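User: I've been trying to design a sequence by hand for this structure and keep getting stuck. Would you show me what you'd pick, starting by listing the structure so we're on the same page?

Assistant: Good idea, let's start from the same input. This is the structure you sent:
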């Protein structure tokens, strides 16, 4: 009895989901959900993943879904495995790179191809659970633009989870959004978000930050996570240093993109002032006849600070000149027009 009631509410939820909102065009074959899956040598997981996705997406979207595998230059049998899926069900697609460009590139290409009203990303290694997709979409419908998965109970080795905690803590602090898990493969977006996101290099770790700074509403929900069943992780531990460098890039190219002088100028001015105060103190001592300036190594430190500070301010000014010449190309994120 209880089971049937649960099924009924689930059906009603699906109904609402596939109907869309009033001002959305209601062509009957509109794709409701696009799932984008970057993969690199994951042949062993693909068949199982395909079956799971089918069983979740078909009832949820009334068969109005597409799954876009982006094969990031795999050298194993992944592409043929996806071809088999495609033969059985032409909602499964594959975009294949000739070489390995990285997860960010794969996501970027998948995002451009995605036609669905909602876009879900997940890893191909079965660590992310397709059964979480309805929960993510439900959260989007509460008025969010990006819902990120949070691997609350995580099944990865310590060498990965510990640095990852530090990574998430720093990113949260610097970016100003309070998320526990920035780099979860499982995420859901409104279509407009993925069309605006500019993912390249290794920026996939910062998608929530990029979306947040583009004015979108971002949140997270806990999701089930599984240990890797087949194959091995494609990311080594070197990723953390690079990850933090990327965080700098993210900050400069989002928060300070249109006002570089505020970033470089603030640090530069503080450093110059410090150098100035130090030298002023030395000059006062000298005037009072307490000591010769040639006896004070601190003088060199003060001078260095001033030179360094002025350089930083100049870099900021160069940045301003650069942005001014490109100002007409800034892509403002407009919600709607009346
Ligand atoms: N991946 C990719 N290109 C790469 C490396 C990884 O498309 O160059 C894919 C990989 O196949 C998987 C996802 O990105 O679907 C996450 O990778 P992985 O599971 O190795 O990362 P981890 O779970 O260890 O963080
Ligand atoms: Mg994985």
């Amino acid at each position: 009895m209880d089971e049937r009631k649960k099924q009924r509410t689930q059906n009603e939820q699906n109904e609402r989901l596939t109907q869309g909102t009033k001002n959305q065009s209601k062509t009957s074959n509109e794709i409701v959900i696009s799932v984008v899956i970057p993969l690199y040598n994951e042949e062993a997981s693909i068949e199982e993943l395909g079956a799971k996705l089918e069983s979740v997406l078909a009832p949820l979207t009334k068969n109005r879904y597409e799954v876009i595998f982006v094969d990031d230059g795999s050298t194993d049998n992944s592409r043929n495995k996806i071809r088999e899926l495609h033969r059985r069900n032409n909602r499964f697609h594959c975009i294949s790179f000739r070489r390995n460009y990285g997860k960010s590139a794969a996501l970027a290409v998948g995002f451009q191809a995605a036609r669905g009203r909602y876009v879900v990303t997940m890893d191909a290694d079965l660590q992310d659970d397709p059964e979480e997709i309805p929960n993510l979409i439900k959260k989007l419908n509460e008025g969010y633009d990006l819902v990120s998965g949070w691997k609350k109970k995580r099944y990865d080795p310590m060498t990965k989870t510990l640095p990852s905690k530090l990574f998430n803590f720093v990113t949260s602090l610097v970016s100003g959004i309070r998320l526990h898990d920035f780099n979860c493969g499982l995420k859901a977006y409104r279509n407009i978000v993925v069309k605006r996101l500019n993912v390249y290099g290794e920026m996939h770790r910062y998608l929530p930050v990029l979306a947040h700074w583009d004015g979108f509403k971002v949140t997270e929900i806990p999701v089930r996570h599984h240990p890797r069943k087949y194959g091995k992780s494609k990311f080594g531990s070197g990723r953390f240093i690079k990850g933090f460098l990327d965080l700098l890039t993210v900050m400069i190219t989002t928060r300070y993109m249109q006002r570089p002088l505020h970033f470089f100028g603030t640090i530069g001015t503080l450093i110059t002032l410090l150098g100035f105060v130090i030298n002023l103190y030395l000059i006062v001592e000298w005037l009072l006849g307490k000591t010769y300036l040639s006896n004070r190594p601190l003088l060199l430190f003060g001078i260095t600070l001033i030179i360094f500070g002025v350089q930083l301010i100049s870099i900021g000014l160069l940045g301003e000149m650069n942005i001014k010449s490109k100002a007409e190309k800034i892509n403002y994120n407009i919600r709607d027009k009346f």
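That's my pick for every position. To get oriented when you compare it with your attempt: The radius of gyration is 26 Å. The pocket of magnesium ion (ligand 2) is lined by residues 123, 125, 127, 228, 233 (CB under 6 Å).
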